[in-house]
Amino acid sequence: MPDSLLNFDRHLFYFINHDLSNPFFDGLMPLMRNPKFWIPLYLFIIVFCIWRYKKQGAILIVFLAMAVGFADYTSASIIKPQVNRLRPCRDPVTAQTDIARVGCGTGYSFPSTHATDHFAIALFLSWIFFKRWKWVLPATILWAAIICFAQVYVGVHYPLDVTGGAVYGTLVGILFGVGFRKVVPGFGA
Question: How many CB atoms lie within 10 A of CB 144?
Fold first, then answer.
């Protein structure tokens, strides 16, 4: 990574991790990045899709699970080990000033798997439901973006980590959305 981009990323990390620091975010952001906090939402999506769309909804959930599984595996097990970028909490340059609001985590930093997974969910659902409900796109993008912001705020990822994860997750979500539409062409009609 070019030094100028690396320095910009570190400065932006410092701004989010330090300068935006406040007691409200200190309590909220660790929750926003915790997958267990979102279990009710995940369950709602599963129940709603199966209840509303029956067999097609079950197929939708299978494709959504495949999208998340693919995004998660490729991000964490293939891309991260190839890039080998240290997390801010382990980087000798930023670790001294990092405000760690959660445990540092294991593994490497780029891309953020949280960002990859949640953008895959967001774009998959948007790809499927946008024609019917326009609000799904901005709502899911905002939701995934908050999770990305939280990852930087708590000190476990750089902004470029979550940006890279968001871009990759977007591509995965759309890819599986297109696949779903090919398998179930008349979905929701």
Answer: 27
The 3 state secondary structure assigned to the chain is CCHHHHHHHHHHHHHHHHHCCCHHHHHHHHHHCCHHHHHHHHHHHHHHHHHHHHHHHHHHHHHHHHHHHHHHHHHHHHHHHHHCCCCCCCCCCCCCCCCCCCCCCCCCCCCCHHHHHHHHHHHHHHHHHCCCCCCHHHHHHHHHHHHHHHHHHCCCCCHHHHHHHHHHHHHHHHHHHHHHHHHCCCCCC
pTM value is 0.92
Sign of the CA dihedral with 55 first, then 60, 66, and 68 last: negative
Q: Which residues contact 11 (CB under 8 A, 6 or more apart)?
A: none
> What are the pLDDT digits (tens) for 15-39?
999 899 999 999 999 999 998 999 9
